[in-house]
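Sample entry (328 residues):
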Amino acid sequence: MKYFRTLFSLLFILFVSCGDNQKKGAYKPESIGAINQLGVVIEDPLWEGEVGDKIREYFAAPIPGLIWDEPQFSIEQMPQRVFTGTTRHRRAVLFVAIDTVSAAFVRTDLYARPQKVAVIKGRNRQEIMDNLEEKAPSIIAEMKQMELEETQKRFLRSLSKDKVLEEEFGISLRLPSIYKLGKREDGFVWIDREIQKGTMNLLAYEMPPDSFQYDSTLVKEIVQMRDSIGRRFIPGPDLPDKETYMVTEDAFAPYVYKTQVNGKYALEVKGIWEVHNYAMAGSFLTYIIWDESRNRYLVLEGFTFAPSTNKRDYMFELEAIMKSVRFL
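Predicted structure, serialized as tokens:
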């Protein structure tokens, strides 16, 4: 009898283990939705009140460095009864509800791949808002990273074969083939692509190791660097008796953050560019990456010229390209 009990126990454990493995390896459909689109599953009374306001405060907060306010996510709200079938295959989902427990967590690839489903629950409205305040920044970071990786994966459909960045700087980027070389001279490379109402642009150049002091003058040093590069390499329209070139918008200091790009220390700079002596402006995003192996700063910059057009998704694409950098 003891032998049969032991055998039964072993078979039960084996069965459960196989079931778990099958569940983990079960097929899940490819997630759907535009980049930076968030489905918020919440009942209308919560969405229309202070809980909805708190959600919008975080997930629809304006992105720094754009010409006008654009939200971090394009939000589509839906009640729970609608969250069925393929609607569950959205890539980014925020589920908010009153429940018997207070909880805040994120599930990965719950209904589709890739996918992040963030769950915020509380026994009342105040608990929900408290959980949102505590967890929203980390939830946004996870979702943004997922969207970045999804964008980079889509680049693989058609990559540029140009070796100019490898030849000039010893780097590679996951660069879509629609981008073409515009200028290459004196250690400076300018790559761009046409869009419906303008252009998207990528710049690459180097700076010596003593370029920045990392004190109260840092922002000023970054602006001087950008303006000197703009004057030398990025001309504006030809005008009689006027010199035109790209500079940093004088009225608004750029935002500067410490970060890492593929494990290397970097500065992230967001702001507005304009053309000296000409009415022309747009958004820029710069990464100043410390490359210790070559004792240099590698500067990658993306900027858009798209008058009267939302620029969030353009800038996000440029960010995804620059963050794909590999040092060869």
